[in-house]
Structure formats: C-alpha cells, structure tokens
Amino acid sequence: MAKNTVWRLLRRNISAGQIAGYALANLVGLAIVLTAVQFYRDVTSVWDDEDSFISKDYMILSKRVSGIGSFMGAGDATRFSSDEIADISSQPWARKVGSFSSAAFNVYAKVDFGGASMGTALFLESIPDDFFDVSPEGWDYEPGRSDYVPVILSKDYLSLYNFGFATSRGMPQVSEEVIGMVPLQFSLSGNGRQEWINARIVGFSSRLNTIAVPEEFMQWANHTFSDTPAENPSRLIVMLDRPGDPQAESYLEEHGYETAGDRADNGKAAYFLSLVTSIVIAVGLIISLLAFFILLLSLYLLLQKNREKIHQLMQLGYSPSQVARYYHYIVLSVNGLVLVVALAVMLIASHSWQSSLEALGVEASPAWPTILIGVAIMSLISIGNLVAITRTVRKDF
Amino acid sequence: MTETISLRRLLPRVFRGSEHEAPVKDSQLWLHEGVDFRRGEYYVIEAESGTGKSSLCAFIYGSRHDYDGEILFDGVDSRGFGIDRWCELRRRSLAYLPQEMRLFPELTVMENITIKNRLTGFRSEADIRSMLSRLEVDNKADTPAGLLSVGQQQRVAIVRALCQPFDFLLIDEPVSHLDARNNLAVATLIDEEASRLGAAIIATSVGNKISLPKFNLLTL
Lengths: 397, 220
Hints:
Chain A is an alpha+beta fold. Helices cover 55% and strands 17% of the residues of chain A.
C-alpha cells in the first residue's frame, strides 16, 4: 500500500499525450534505422554469395600494357616492384596485398578422352591461401603426398569453350561438374628436368581471372623446375577495406593500374547502396535523437511540476535514487515497448522482401545482429534518460 | 548515533552586515562561539518573528545551507555531508517537524504517516493508531490531510515525525495552533518518546511554549 502511495504522488502531472508522442516518434526513427540496417545486410549478402570463395572486398590489379612494353616481352614495365607493392599496402583502403606468383617453368596439359588425347601449353599462377574466404574442397596440396594438383579456373574460360569453341566445332558442351571429373595431366619441365603429374579442376571463379593452383605447389614446382630467382609479380590481389572506395579508384587512375573483370562496377553499386543506406540510417537516427529530446523535455517538465513533492519526499529521508526509480520505471517500460514494436516492424519488413531475395537464390542474413543494434541504440537512449532523471532529482534535494 | 550538535559562530546570510544590530546583537545563539545541543537534554528556543528560528531548524536539518559559521555533528562540519549521509541522518538520527508541516494534501492521514514509516519500519500500525488516538486525531485517519484544520495537521505531523528512531527531535512551533490540553498531550507524548530513546528535543516557539517538564531556555 505504502509503495503505491509514493507512486500516486509522483505520477501526478504525467502527460500521456507527451509520452505517446515520444513513443511514436522514437518508434518511427528506430524502425527506419533497423529496417535499413537489415535491408543493407540482406542485399549485400547477394554480393557475398555470388562468388563463394572470393568475396566482394577483393580487387585484382595489373599494370596497363603499353605498346612498347608489349614488344619488349613481359618485361619489368608491367611488373610491380617491391616499392610499388609497399606503397599500395600503405594506402588506407588496402587491408592486405598479395602477389600472384607465376610459374617459371613450362607447363603442358594433356586430357585423355577414352584414348584420344588433347593437349595444350598452359600457364599457372597462385595467390596466398588467406585471400580465399572458403577453400574449395580438395584445395590442400602437399608436394609428394597429394594424388593430384587442385586447379581453379576462371569461369570465362569455360564459357569461351562452351559457347565459342564447342558450338562452332560441334563438340560437346560440358558443365562444371563434368569438368571436375576429367583427369588432367600436367607435364612440368625446366631446369633440365621433366615430370608428369595428375591434376583436377576443383572450382571455378568469376573473379579470379587466371588458372590458379595452391601456393605450396607453386613454390615446390618453381624450386624444382627453375633455377632463376622469382621475378616481381605482374598482378596483385588486394583485400579492400570498403568496396568501391573512390579513393582507391583515383589511386588506380593516377598510377595507371587496371582492375580485372566486373569488380569495379559491382563495387560501385555496393558503394552507392551503402551511401543510400547510410543516408536512410542517418535520417532514422536523427528522428530517434529528436524523439529522445522530446522525452527529455517532457521529463524535465514533469519533474519541474512535481518538484515540491520530490523535495518533500527527500526531506522525509527518501534518497534521490528511490524517488528517481519511479520515473526510471516509466522510461524503461516505454522504451522497452518501443523497442519491441520497432523490432517487429523490422522483422515484418524483412519478411516482405525475403521472397524476392529467394528468387535471386540468396539466403537472407540472420536478424540477430540487427536486433543487437536495436537493443544497443535503445540502451543508449535509456541510459541518457535515466541519467538526466537522476541528476534532476538530485538537484531538488 | 549523534551525541552533540554544536553551533560555531552561526549566522544566516540574510543577517550579514547587521551583526551589531537587533536581533543578532541580543541573540544567545547567532554568532556565539559555542552553543552545544546534547542528547538527553531539552531545549526551547524562544524567538520573535523574523529572527530566523525556522532557518535555524532548516540549517540543522541540512535542507538549507545559506549560513555562515559551522554546524558540527559530534565535531564534524555538516557542510561536508553528502546526500547519502543526510538521508541516513533523516531516517535514523534527526526527526523534524517543519513549521508548515508539509503533509501531502492529497494523501490521507494514515498514508502521510506510513509514507515515512515504511522508510524506517519503526512503528507498527497499532502504534501509529494509538499515537493518533492520544492526540485525538484517530477519527481522521482516512481523511485527506488537506481537509484537516491546521491544529489537526500539526498533531498528524508530530506523529509522522515520531515514526523513526532519533537522537534529536527538531520541532518548529509544534503547538502554535493547539489549546493547553492538546499542548500537554503533545508534550507528554514527545517527552515519553524522547526519554525512551535518550534523545534531545529542540523546540522553537514564538510565545505559546510547549509544556515540557523541564528545559533549557534560549533566546534567539
């Protein structure tokens, strides 16, 4: 009974209209923020999923081949010196830089189709393993122990064969799965040695514009079949801090570097998406911030109107925190309710675009990081409110 | 437990500059080097209006700080006390009846008293009802305090002040609106409670003095 007595004293002058106004405003702001965050995460997962083992945050750099350089052979003009690599590594947008190592020996590949054999001269390259998000199955290689060398091929090569070569020559088209089952043989030669080894294509990449083998294999083979020291790389793979960073683009322009494939366009789309999302999130945050100030003003007004009662309670020996507790309770219940409704709005909204995403063959991102963001924003707002209440009540002591 | 409250050269700020004029000149309290209030003693402070007796109570109770000089609780300057210390004193050591009573008009008599008692848990409901009955306001227990006469409010506020353990009971004009019979009833009740606790009573008065059996008289 006594507890309700204090509550009855302190709830005087609480304006339901002001609190409802705050709740509505903060609900709108928070729902915009959370929905935008979830939308961004769902949509960027499209980029993430498109290439399972090379993520969107990578860029492959090469130098522009000039007229003279090409006539002088694959000379130093198109290679990256260690100074240049260090300069790229030191750029703010570059998180990590890896070199393509190319084979310094001759490669000849042979395929056996039931007795008939086809062969071609080939080149191989490798990049450090940590530039792969997920290694394809069988990507490990140990010299002397593994049965075959795993190979990753550019998707473009398969397309060239299927839609160019095979159709015009009346040869069968092959799928990725079929290619994976074809036994390949590599003849490696150089440095006065020659050796046949088995190889198998384990994956295709739309980004990695090369024929890639594991770095362990490349080191072993270069060591075995070549006596010249390793040359500077002509291509670099760069892990980016942010896709489509304009700084990175102007740097490439300035130094005459080129990026491979459709990377840059995708990066630009991702960059614009993140820009638009940032603007929407900023608008939502501003609405939430304004709502926070509405509640703060409403609370100050309430505490001002009840100032005499609050002062008298503390004259009786009530501590400021005992008095403030009742107002904390109001703030926490209103904020808790707003948070729950805003999360519900976000989940319903994300459910509504889920079917379109599934049509693109994309799994939606889990909602819990967005929920955590919502809880974090609401906690900050609540802490701000609670601190303001406690400080005001203490002033009335 | 607080044994002694001492005033050292205490002066309300409002009297700054008039130290050599009445009422400060003739006061037995203001600007005196050592005025000690001890547990177990009763004090009646007699004053004319406007001499600062309510200010004195508020200074001691820690609700106002617009004074020069020092108020020492067992030798410690109370200016340095934090909010927590004051809350503790107001629950365990200092009981206070302000002149304006400060009851919550929208709450009933019983609610006004329990709002204090729930902080201290010092009295049972039966105790409270028996005190109300001794002061002849038990029939008003469920009436909103705002509807009571000033004299009735005074008695309710006295019961509320007694709902806590105390070393010092500060009562600002407790009987200004009471007749002689009620004055005696109040005096007997607070004398009983104070002697049971070994506490001091500091009462102010502008004329109608509380009928305590014995007391030190000070003129403000």
